[in-house]
Write the structure tokens for this entry.
Amino acid sequence: MDKSLFASLEDLAVFVAVVQEGSFSAAALRLGIAGSAISKRMARLETRIGSQLLLRTTRRLSLTEVGQLAYAKAREADSLLAEALSLAAERSRHPRGMLRVSASVSFGLNRVVPLLPGFRCQFPEVDVDLLLLDRMVDLVEEGVDVAIRIAERLPESSIARPLCPVRYRLCASPDYLRDHPIAAPADLLSLTCLHYRVAPQAGRWHLQKGSEAVDLAVQTPVVVNNSDAVALLAQQGMGVALLADYACERGLQNGDLVAVLPDWDISGPFGGWAHAIWRPQVSLPRKTRVFIDFLAAEMGSLTVGASGARQGPSGADQRPDR
């Protein structure tokens, strides 16, 4: 915006104060600026308008005919400006507006969607447009305010905040395990294994227990690009699935799935933490800030172990360095 327009708005505000206070000195005291600055701004305003606005005597100020017309409009503009600034300040204090959020289908369904009622209850003036997509989104091109990603490497142009850990498990249906008992990692080599399609090196599974580590090139005749679909195939007895905790916890709880080799840790294909990421900006909108804080607080409970101690990286905002 033209800087001269801002100067004109300031000069109009000075003009209104001078008329309302009845003198340059009183206006200067009200506005907290020097009396000489009042004189300069009034002179500048009169030059811009091309006409004298005030008649000054030793005792009083009075408005010229043009000044009377200008004052009526200036007072109206000053009132509208004050109202606009007040509304802007109110909006910054009370988050509102549309928030566009992106997450993978499975993580969104199992981790984000259950939290939306609570978020909307706490912040009823923030509307959420949730995009569940099993692909990376471009925050700028697709107009996304916050993306939730599980990845080893996050975009260098973004700012990230860890939300919750993601643990990976091997699971299978009870019927499948009755027919295919698994006592050691090597037993997996002769079995059908299932995993997420776009996972890097998805056909190689790395298991570890203490100092013992095993790398396996497993048979993966069926791959799917959705974690919930992989979990469903495992429940139907198709094979052993490598699943993130959010995709298998319901099946484990209701008995449709059983943990395989639970004493072994298995490396996840996308990294061990879910992050909220957003574009760097001078001032993060209030609606975005409260949403990220809400997710971090609610999902942060997932990092509390049996001892009650929190684990993993801190919740402070950080630029991704990996």
